[in-house]
């Protein structure tokens, strides 16, 4: 058996499907039925992300991800993983999500360590993120989750159900200093005002987390969000953590993505960030022991110039995901 097949077998064995018992209570079932019937694809993507984190639990410590994902999304994701295993796939479903999650976790910790732990953390398009309950590095940080009102309400109710459950209560201890949920659509112009009304301080060091959100926005809305965050560099030390897709990723026939940037490390300095670091999946800081196969799609991408839009052997689009950390402060603001 090849090393790749051994890796696949190991993944398949680790990613077993264990459904939380709370999913079968009437209250939780009703909430997830609402999600499936009434939420649009953008809102539902929050549950898909949670399902991936729940199934990659041997890499990601998120004890409530399964509850937030729901039975349908867990089963669907698990079926994809099993098909990948049977088809000897080079990329098992969820592996990129796992790498992305671990990258953001590590960069949040590093940013807070460099600011002596007390910075605010804002999760834009927070979805079913549970970092405020699982990252110990947030113990001195005030965390703000910004997302659609209906999404945050369902999320809050699901977590309350876990708190009320004897078996789940011990797994749901908030690790952040405080958590504030801000009901706002970041596609509207009032989200930053709502964030400030909720207690966000524009003059306090801040880490902004935009994981899996920018490419769902139109170019206009994405640039509005990035400009608002970049403006904070003139007031206080500001760190932006975000993932960007390149143009080929948004032009596929079945793509639901809109905003792209082929060169985010050029875009962000033009907005006011003084330092930008860019990584691709498989780079030393975006590997986490999950990218060993040299024939993996993302390892092949890393060996091609970033300016190359298609693969030289078959002409297929080079779809890239960039993981970007940008920062700036009043003393470093670019004129």
From TrEMBL:
Biological process (GO), any one: methylation
The protein's matches in InterPro entries, at most eight in alphabetical order, are given as: Ppm1/Ppm2/Tcmp, SAM-dependent_MTases_sf, SAM_mthyl_Trfase_ML2640-like
Q: Which Gene3D superfamilies match?
A: Vaccinia Virus protein VP39
* Superkingdom of source: Eukaryota
Q: Name one GO molecular function term.
A: methyltransferase activity
Keyword Methyltransferase, does the record have it? yes
Q: Could you tell me the keywords of this UniProt record?
A: Methyltransferase, Transferase
Answer yes or no on keyword Protease. no
Give the protein family: Belongs to the UPF0677 family.
Which PANTHER family does the protein's record reference?
A: LEUCINE CARBOXYL METHYLTRANSFERASE (PTHR43619:SF8), S-ADENOSYL-L-METHIONINE-DEPENDENT METHYLTRANSFERASE YKTD-RELATED (PTHR43619)
Name under which the protein is recorded: LCM domain-containing protein
């Amino acid at each position: 058996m090849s090393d790749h097949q051994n890796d696949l077998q190991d993944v398949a064995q680790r990613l077993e499907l264990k459904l939380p018992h709370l999913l079968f209570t009437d209250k939780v079932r009703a909430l997830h039925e609402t999600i499936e019937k009434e939420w649009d694809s953008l809102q539902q993507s929050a549950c898909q992300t949670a399902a991936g984190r729940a199934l990659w639990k041997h890499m990601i410590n998120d004890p409530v991800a399964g509850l937030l994902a729901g039975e349908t999304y867990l089963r669907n994701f698990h079926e994809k993983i099993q098909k990948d295993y049977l088809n000897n796939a080079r990329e098992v479903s969820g592996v990129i999500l796992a790498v992305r999650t671990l990258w953001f976790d590590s960069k949040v910790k590093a940013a807070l360590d460099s600011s002596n732990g007390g910075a605010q953390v804002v999760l834009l398009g927070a979805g079913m993120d549970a970092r405020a309950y699982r990252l110990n590095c947030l113990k001195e940080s005030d965390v703000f989750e910004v997302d659609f009102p209906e999404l945050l309400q369902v999320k809050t109710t699901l977590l309350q159900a876990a708190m009320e459950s004897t078996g789940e209560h011990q797994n749901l201890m908030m690790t952040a200093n405080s958590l504030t949920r801000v009901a706002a659509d970041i596609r509207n112009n009032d989200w930053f005002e709502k964030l400030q009304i909720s207690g966000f301080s524009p003059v306090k060091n801040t880490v902004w987390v935009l994981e899996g959100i920018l490419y769902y926005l139109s170019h206009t809305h994405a640039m509005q969000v990035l400009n608002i965050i970049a403006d904070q560099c003139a007031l206080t030390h500001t760190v932006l953590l975000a993932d960007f897709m390149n143009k080929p990723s948004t032009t596929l026939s079945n793509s639901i993505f809109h905003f792209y940037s082929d060169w985010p490390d050029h875009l962000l300095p033009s907005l006011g960030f003084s330092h930008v670091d860019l990584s691709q999946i498989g780079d030393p800081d975006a590997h986490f022991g999950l990218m060993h196969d040299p024939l993996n799609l993302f390892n092949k991408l890393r060996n091609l110039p970033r300016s190359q839009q298609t693969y030289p052997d078959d002409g297929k689009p080079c779809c890239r995901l960039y993981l970007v950390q940008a920062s700036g402060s009043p003393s470093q603001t670019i004129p």
